[in-house]
Amino acid sequence: MLMLATVVTASAQTKKVSVLGDSYSTFIGIIPDNYATFYPDSRNDVKEVGQTWWDLYIKANGYELEKNDSWGGTTICGTGYFGMNSTATSFFSRADLLGDPDIIFVFGGTNDAWANSPVGEYKYSDWTVDDCKNFRPALAFLLQTLKTFYPKAKIYSILNSELREEINQSMRTVCKHYNVQLIELYDIEKQNGHPSIAGMKAICEQLQAAIK
Q1: Is residue 33 one of the residues assigned to a domain?
Q2: How far is Cα 91 from Cα 98, in angstroms, rounded to an integer?
Q3: For residue 69, what are the domain limits?
Q4: Helices and strands, number each (H, E), in the chain
Q5: Helix H or strand E segment including 203
Q6: How far apart are CA 211 and CA 163, in angstroms?
Q7: CATH number of domain containing 150
Q8: Beta-ladder partners of 64
Q9: Total domains present in the chain
Q10: Which has fewest Cβ within 10 Å: 19, 56, 101, 157?
Q11: Contact 207, 158 (CB under 8 A)
């Protein structure tokens, strides 16, 4: 059975934002050096950190970046592209790497959808590694872990536009179970499958409108 790690208390004295994501939230020099990145890329007009959705949001609200743990191509669950075991790079395996945040954005599910990862059944306790090779139990384990690690942090889950409905509905159901606000994006302009400058601005604006 997978075990939750030691609780980390978030500081009440700062407004620090951490991001747990995939390629949509990457930027070279910001994410860990050994992680795969997408931005900047010759096939996309986003060339500067200040054009990313998360930097736009942080600057607009006067916050600080605590940690960006975004890894291109990663899935929330432990099954990646071509059915490969991606447990080591999964979102839930990186949940303890976010520092001491007041706000956490989880922006994932895109690769689970694109890789056609199995969704499995809803499960909210006693997870095993094999359980978490499926999207629904992996997402539940992830959110429970984040709530346990960072009890004072506000957690938001961001859902990409144009994903398959099975992933969309699964995220709605699991986020509702954990009382985590799910922000469903729409009309996000993309280049090479990734948000463009206009798409990044739209993400920031939709976050601003959704978060009160």
Answers
A1: yes
A2: 11
A3: 16-210
A4: 5, 7
A5: helix 197-210
A6: 22
A7: 3.40.50.1110
A8: 16
A9: 1
A10: 56
A11: yes
